[in-house]
Amino acid sequence: MPATVSDKPVFTKAPIPTWFGVGGGADAMASPRSLDELRACLAVDPALRVLGEGANLLVDDDGVPGLVVRLDAPAFTGVEYLDRGLVRVGAGVHLFKLINQTVGRGLAGLEVLAGVPASIGGALVMNAGGAYGQIADTVHTVFALDREGREVSLTREQIAFGYRASGLDHLIVTGAVMRLTPGDAAALTARKKQINDAKDASQPLRANSAGCCFKNPTLRHAVAGVGEAGQRVSAGMVIDRAGLKGTRLGSAVVSDRHANFLLCEDRRTGRARDIIDLINLVQRRVMDAFGIALEREVVIWSRESL
Q1: Fold of 204-301
Q2: Fewer CB within 10 A of the end CB, N or C, for the chain?
Q3: What is the pLDDT of residues 225-252, one digit of tens each?
Q4: Element (H, E) at 98
Q5: In the prediction, which pLDDT does 304 show?
Q6: Are the CB atoms for 77 and 92 separated by under 8 Å?
Q7: Which residues pair with 70 in a beta bridge?
Q8: So which residues are the catalytic ones?
Q9: Model-level pTM greater than 0.70?
Q10: Looking at the domain that runs over 77-187, which CATH code has it been given?
Q11: Would you place residue 5 in the very low, low, confident or very high pLDDT band (cuts 50, 70, 90)?
Q12: Beta bridge partners of 296
């Protein structure tokens, strides 16, 4: 029988679904139905982890200790359209869903994130984005709980958004207000399709992966054939130049289509550890070849610090 947080069951040895399709589970998992139940979860485990879409996550084969929460209850999945292009949205809302809704309503700003799989909470914490834009550009206010269960409200100016970073990692994001711009729904739909088509043409979107595995590095020194000092360059290009496309460890392989995608080729026999070992191998080879330190974009959960 599951334990409880308040009167909400906490399931033990619960699977953690990710887009890789491999990896371990959570020792305990709960889906709080309200802020009060989320506070109760924090009282049980102040270091709890929040599981969003699982699109940018890899869980080691042995799983993770402590409590994992999913903000998938109605209290965290609502979308409310306010005045002047403001949209209040729960942290558990799927970004795909919100993009489709806002584009259909003729609200511009999120269409640049077409093809980015995430929950709103996860997208805010990592400042999800790509070549076309980032979610930080649409943020008005972020709502969260701190680890003591206190409510926090931060305006865009109070958040330290940066490249794939927000400074929100220490909080439990519960929702946000997005500031969008009225536009033409047909034009926005066409733009969203254009971005999706461009990504589909160059990325293995249907494979078992977490999307781009590494952040695009900023060069600390000039690298011949790569870039000048201070320039941000494509991680995929650097990995490709290091001759790593097609490199394989067990069930894990560097995509031949886009070198910044590491794939799990077989969910039935694959292991998360194969992917982790391949990540480490790619980092070592790129450092050896160019002196460039690749930083992971994919988040790894483990019983140990990785």
Answers
A1: 3.90.78
A2: N
A3: 899 999 999 999 999 999 999 999 999 9
A4: helix 95-104
A5: 86
A6: yes
A7: 51
A8: 164, 212, 297
A9: yes
A10: 3.30.465.10
A11: low
A12: 214
